Amino acid sequence: MLKFNKLIVGLFFTCFLSFGQIANAQQKTMVIVDADTGNEVDDLFALVRIIAESSVEITALTAAHWQTSLWAIPNTMENSHRLNQQLLGEMGSDIKTLRGATARMYDWGDRAQHSAAAYEIISQAEGTNQLNILVLGALTNVASAIFIKPEIANKLKVYWLGTTMDFEKGILKRNDFNPLMDPFALDLLLESEVELVILPVNVASAMEIAYDDLENNIADLDLGKFLLERWDTHLDGSRKSRVLWDLALISAFINPDFAKIVTIRTSRDSGNRDIQFYNEINAKAIYQDFYATLLAFSKE
After folding, report:
1. Is the CATH code 3.90.245.10 the one for domain 29-299?
2. Using CA atoms, how far apart are residues 112 and 231, in angstroms rounded to an integer?
């Protein structure tokens, strides 16, 4: 009888732990992150923040091109893919990494860029009611997935950094870097059933930070040294200060209290539909949170 009671107790605790693990997994927010990591300094900072976030599970880290850029190298997507893998190595992470499109979408016919990233988006979308995707660069991979499989559009919720929004006049401009990397991809998403949450660059510009401030807060950490080296060696001319654009989008996704959102009905040439726009971010809170997260991760 005693052995039987011990068996029952053992089974109870096994089930309890199993249910606890399942509940913990269910509480995590699942997301694909699509990043043009090779393009600028800010991507690595943003990726560090979300990889270190315990409440989020990244189901795939996909590489985006920046091939249309005036300072593009021969294969920008591969450059982004390599840096994604390098960062995961630095952080001891085994997140799945996938190659995306090598350039913007085609001009006619089958306009999709068929890539591992596009088909991963399709596969995950088909298996869920809503798929969150954080896009830090060109929209090529997401738009290609929709072009290949239009029926997944209403399952996607895409958070994206790009465009400039005049909130007083309700005018959306598309002349900043990310839209210009693939104008057709943006048009496709604006006119689709995808739920869009956009962080305009004129709002994200509040994220400008001095190098000295970053150095004072992260230089003593190994991962901090890795990030500062990226700042020091990147090809652009910014050295004393930069805007870490992508960190704003990632942080607002993780901590909605760090930003404010308004819904705007776009004009007929921009989809003529309701889209959510971040109209304010708390840059100070975002950076304080970043420093605390980096420190906690480094102590693990």
Report:
1. yes
2. 34
> pTM here?
0.91
Q: Longest Cα pair distance anywhere in the chain, in angstroms?
A: 78
Mind listing the pLDDT tens digit of every residue in the chain (300 residues)?
444 444 443 444 444 344 444 444 458 999 999 999 999 999 999 999 999 999 999 999 999 999 999 889 999 999 999 999 999 999 999 999 999 999 999 999 999 999 999 999 999 999 999 999 999 999 999 999 999 999 999 999 999 999 999 999 999 999 999 999 999 999 999 999 999 999 999 999 999 999 999 999 999 999 999 999 999 999 887 889 999 999 999 999 999 999 999 999 999 999 999 999 999 999 999 999 999 999 999 988
Could you state, in order of their start, the residue ranges of all structural domains in the chain?
A: 29-299
Is 184 buried (19+), middle (13-18) or exposed (0-12) by CB count in 10 A?
middle
3-state secondary structure of 227: helix
- Burial grade of 136 (CB within 10 A; 0-12, 13-18, 19 or more): buried
In degrees, rounded to 5, the angle at the alpha carbon of residue 243 between the alpha carbons of residues 247 and 91 is 40
